[in-house]
Amino acid sequence: MMNILKRCAAPLLSALLVLASHAALAEPGQVVAGSYVNKIQDLNFKENKYTLDFFLWFRWKATGALEDYKPLESVELINGKIEDKSSVVEKKIGDISYASVRVRATMSENWELANFPFDAHTMQVHIEDSGKSQDELVFVPDTANSRLGDEIDMAGWTESNFTTSVVPKVYRTNYGDPSLPTDARSEFSRFVMSMEIHRESYGSAIKLLSTVLLATAVAFVAFMVKPSDLDARFGMGVGSLFAVAASAFIAASSVPDSGVMTVADQVHMVALAFIFVSLLMSSLCLKFEVTGREELAFRIDRWCVVLFPIAFYGWATVAIIKAIG
């Protein structure tokens, strides 16, 4: 009986060792990835891009699938274009391989502009290894050492809430390779850097909206002019229309063409509507005056000179508070 057990134990132990070695080989290699952001520059809302200057580093054990791993050659920027690499470092620290590089890149960003010019943005940088799928390589974020630099200095903006994370990314395609099934899929580990930017003050918003707010006030002042004084009364309204239209054109030139109605767009559209209605009321009051109903015309003017500003500026205040909040 003992002999039988001994004869069975040897092949069983060998099988277990083989299975263990295969399991170890099946485990993807871990690569610690981190980043330090030096500069965020050239924010361009019109062209959906900005320039990012940052350090990127990797640490890994050169075993298994990572035995000949060269991250500085195989990693790629998914949502940007690398313009320049410098300060390259590659070395061994004990049994750990280390590589770092300084990157200057032009990043693509779909800005969230619904609250423009009271907007804030979350920007992300997506990095993947082009040569190794998630079966071979998994990134691990170096959260302890990754951060924003203290010399970013974006004019008019404040940066905050920098985070690093890793997410899986699935590509459902065979890339046109006929040797693979049409429903093939591949999964890669994606290293993600996220940061938020907020406007330091609302000076630019005040400059952008001051014309429309003042021009609309001028249109409302027309209610204080006698309806029969055509040149002054209608001239103020028509002039306000042109001023608001010009201001709307300037505001639209700062953002890309899209279906998003920004806060600035809403303020201009509502202002144009109020000015148009004020011109209609002026025409109505003129008709009342020339038909002998002067008291009714003056009464309408007194109501309009109070209600129109309250309605327009009250709505604008609520819209701006929502955008800021």
Describe what you observe in this structure.
40% of the residues lie in helices and 32% in strands. By secondary structure, the chain is α+β, with helices and mostly antiparallel strands. The protein has 2 domains: 28-199, Distorted Sandwich (Acetylcholine Binding Protein, Chain: A); 203-324, Up-down Bundle (Methane Monooxygenase Hydroxylase, Chain G, domain 1). The strands form 2 sheets. Strands 1, 2, 4, 5, 7 and 8 form a 6-stranded mixed beta sheet that branches. The protein has a 4-stranded antiparallel beta sheet with strand order 3-6-10-9. The protein is elongated, with a radius of gyration of 32 Å. The chain starts with a helix and ends with a helix.
Write the layout of secondary structure elements.
Layout: H1 2-26, E1 29-44, E2 49-60, H2 71-74, E3 75-77, E4 80-93, E5 96-108, E6 120-129, E7 137-141, E8 147-148, E9 157-171, E10 186-199, H3 203-221, H4 230-252, H5 263-290, H6 294-324
Parallel strand pairs: 1-7, 1-8
Antiparallel strand pairs: 1-2, 2-5, 3-6, 4-5, 6-10, 9-10
Helix pairs in contact: 3-4, 3-5, 3-6, 4-5, 5-6
